[in-house]
Structures are given as C-alpha cells and as structure tokens.
Amino acid sequence: MSRQASRFDSKKVNAEFLTLTYGALVTQMLRDFENVEDVNKQLERIGYNMGMRLIEDFLARTSAPRCLEMRETADRIQQAFRIYLNVQPTISNWSASSDEFSLVFETNPLTEFVELPQDLTNLRYSSILSGCIRGALEMVQLDVQCWFVQDQLKGDNVTELRIKFVRRLEDAIPAGED
Amino acid sequence: MSEDILFDFLHAEIVNYCLHDNNKENDFSALEYIGFNTGYRLIERLTRDAPRFKDELETMKFICTDFWTLIYKKQVDNLRTNNHGMYVVQDKAFRFLTRISTGAKQLEHAPKFVFFTCGLVRGALTNLGINSTVTAEVQTIPACKFHIEINRN
Amino acid sequence: MTIYHLYIFDKLGTMMYYAEWNRTKKSGVSREEEAKLTYGMLFSIKSFVSKISPHDPREGFLFYKTNRYALHYMETPSGLKFVLYTDTAALNVKELLQQLYSKIWVEYVVRDPLWSPGTPVTSELFQTKLDEFIKQSALYSIRNI
C-alpha cells in the first residue's frame, strides 16, 4: 500500500513528535503569559501532574520496591529517563551527606530543535523535567527540590539538573489511630 | 510503548492547560494551534528528503495512512473521498479515546481529545501546500471520524 | 478456588474502588464503614508485623488466612493498596495483584485522562476490564459445596 512507510524510523519519529509538541506548548504559553516566570511555573506544574501518573507506570513496569536511600532513588530516576526519553543522564556531584546529587545530560531530547532568543534567557525551557521528578517522587513519599544548574540552551556544555532530598513524607494514619 | 505513555500524559495535560486552566472550556483554538504547529514542523522533518507528492490525492493518502500509522500506532479503519476535496478518515479506536468510558457524560468531554489532532493534520497539510479545514466527530467512544475539507481558492 | 471481593485504597486511605464477585455474606455495616474498618485493621497489622518481625521486613505483610477465607495484600511504593479476599485454596495471588496493577489499574485508571489522581474510580471501562480480568484468572471459579 505504501512505498514510504518503511523509510521512517518510528522510534525517532515518536521522539520528534514529543519534542515538537512540547515546543508548540511552550510557544503557546509564551503567547498566553507576559511574564516568563509564569511560563516556568506552568511548565513545572504540567510536569508535576505528569510525574504523578508516570510513577505508577514506572512502578508497575519495573516492579521496583520502595527506595531505602537516595542513591537507589538516583538510579531509578536514571532508569526512568532511559525508559521514557531514551537518554541516560550521568549521576554525579553527590553532596557529602548523600542527600543531594546531579543528573547530567549530554543531550536533552526536549531541546533538540530549540534556540532561545536573547529576550528569553529567563525561560527554563525544560521545567517539565524537574516538575515530573518532583511529582513522581512525591507519590513515593519523597519530598525533593529540583532545579537546573546548567542548561545547554544557555550556552553550557551540558544540562545539569540538581535534586535535593528534603524529607520523607509520612504515610497517612487512619482516623482514630495514633 | 514507553514513549507513547509519556506522550499521552503530555497530551492530556495540554488539553487541561488549554481548556481548564485558562477558563476557556469551549475555546479549542489554542489546542488546535498547538497541534497545527506540531504537524507543520513534524511533516517538514518527515518529508524533507522525500520526492514531492505528485498530486493532492497522493498527499492525502500519505497523511491518512503513513503519517497516521506513525503517530497513532494503527492504520485508519476507513479513508474515503467524494473526489471533490472532501476526505473522511475513520479510526475505530482513536488513540486519545481508548482509555475513556463510553458513557454519555464522557462523550461530552470527547471533543477535547480530538482538537489537537485536527490541528496536527491541518498543519501537516499546510506545510505540504494544501489549505484545509479539519473537523472531527465522536459518536461512540473510542471511534472518531475526521473530516478534511480542502479549501480551493 | 474463588475470589470474593476487592478493595483498592490510595496512600491516604481513600477507598478508590470496591468490587465483589462471590461474596455471599454482608458485614452488616455500610460500605464506607466497612472500608474504614478494613483500612484501619490493615494499618495496624502492617505496623505490628513490621515491628515484631525478627528480620528486616522487606516485603512486610502479605496475607492472612482464617479457616474460611484469606485476605491478600499488596502495597505499591506509591502507597496504593490492593486488598483481595479469596477462599483459603487460592494460590499465586501476589502475581495476580501485580498483574491487576500493571494491566488494569495503570491502563484504565492512571491512563484515563478523565480521572484525577486521588479521586475514587468511577470508570465503567475500568469496571469492565477488571471484571474480565478477574473472571479470566485461574483463581476465579465458583465452588459448589
């Protein structure tokens, strides 16, 4: 029926589809908000919502048990990036107390076709990633902070995402118990 | 499969952002525009090394078969034309509707999940030199019919 | 072997879903009350079991059995709790619950864009798929005594 279909690498097309759709969303938000900071917040929130759902797929897919320490968590996040975005960030720069680390990306699939104009240097284009990590970890009772330290869109050699453990959230106690 | 689920979640959040967050329950223009923008750029990447399509019918066939299969993971169930610039694509299990219940209440929400795709198809066609109007109708979840009308000036 | 009923709770103890198949006796209290009591009991068993365990309880509480029925428990790292009541002959329930989580819950609840996380599940599609899943499982067969 089709002479063209076999030409396409469907994995690549799907990755580009995601990248371009995300880019179109960012473009739309930049039209909707005057303040770039609001765009950052919206992107982060969207990531957070996605993370809350994505974690269930990840747990079901990998049958992973609950992590006992941050080093395990770091490995799982790395694995998730491999599963969902087909990239493998390097885990590095652990703090002395092992409660803070970096994910370093040689390439960031989200920014493959993106160049930031001068007036958008405050835009944290990939905020969806930090939101996603935060949302996913909150679902497994880990409260973390997550922010960008380096960003290739801003001229850095790599993109570096910093993750800091804040606290373990307690399981809910049923009413009447203590 | 794993990228698909990520995309489905992104799509659902885009729908929420465009409709609920901005209090524009019935304004699908932003959603359509995001689809348009995506389709326009995606088709450019897909076809830049390919020979030009010989005519409108060939272009339409490409969009409704190859392109559709790549994005929606299945072939369309039916593709028809009246030979006067009207094409109807029928997908009996449309990707963004397959996890939604079939009830009347859910049906009211169905339009939200088709507008991105209307834009996607329109954007792709625009880049290939075809000016069109794309609409969709959902009568029974998860089936969906897309109507593509070529605008000839 | 047979399956009686199923509870699904989220991490806050909200009853996300309840379904029954061959349950012939009611508890005499409302569904909500029963759910609350069930959740409270599980919470207590769970903390007690891990407290008195002579080893590090990696998996924690998995099931208990009376002479008439068994209760099987699976908790995901995200705090979702699947509670399945079966007869005492039921085998491999852990695998069944794991499958239920990945093939039914993730597919038809988590991936349903009309469901909001943390809210009880009302999807008929989920109900249908769950019912098919349970009825097709090796565990499900009505016992004539």
Strand content of chain A: 15-25%
Please name the fourth-level CATH homologous superfamily of chain B: Trafficking protein particle complex subunit 3
User: From the alpha-carbon coordinates, what is the Rg of chain B to the nearest angstrom?
Assistant: 15 Å
Distance between the termini of chain A: 67 Å
Give the domain tally of chain A: 1
Q: Overall pLDDT of chain A, averaged?
A: 91
Under the CATH scheme, the architecture of chain A is: 2-Layer Sandwich
- Main beta-sheet strand count, sense and barrel state of chain A: 4 strands, antiparallel
CATH superfamily of chain A: Trafficking protein particle complex subunit 3
Low-confidence stretches of chain B: none
CATH architecture of chain B: 2-Layer Sandwich
Helix content of chain A: 40-55%
Which structural category fits the helices and strands of chain A? Answer: alpha+beta
Q: What's the helix-strand series of chain A?
A: HHHEEHEE
Biggest β-sheet description of chain B? 4 strands, antiparallel
By CATH reckoning, the class of chain A would read Alpha Beta
Number of extended strands of chain B: 4
- For the biggest β-sheet of chain A, the strand order reads 1-2-4-3
Family (chain B): Belongs to the TRAPP small subunits family. BET3 subfamily.
Protein name (chain B): Trafficking protein particle complex subunit 6B
Subcellular location (chain B): Endoplasmic reticulum; Golgi apparatus, cis-Golgi network
Keywords (chain B): Endoplasmic reticulum, Golgi apparatus, Neurogenesis
Structure report:
The complex is a heterotrimer of chains A (178), B (153) and C (145). Chain A is of the alpha+beta class. Chain A has a single domain, classed as Trafficking protein particle complex subunit 3 (Muramoyl-pentapeptide Carboxypeptidase, domain 2), CATH 3.30.1380. Chain A has helices spanning 10-32, 36-62, 70-85, 127-139; strands spanning 90-92, 100-105, 142-150, 159-168. In chain A, α2 (36-62) packs across α4. With 153 residues, chain B is α+β, with helices and mostly antiparallel strands. In chain B, β3 and β4 form a beta hairpin. Chain B is globular. Chain B starts with a helix and ends with a strand. Chain C has 145 residues and is an alpha+beta fold. Chain C has a single domain, classed as Beta-Lactamase. In chain C, α2 (93-110) packs antiparallel against α3. Chain C: Belongs to the TRAPP small subunits family. BET5 subfamily. Chain C: Pfam families: Sybindin.
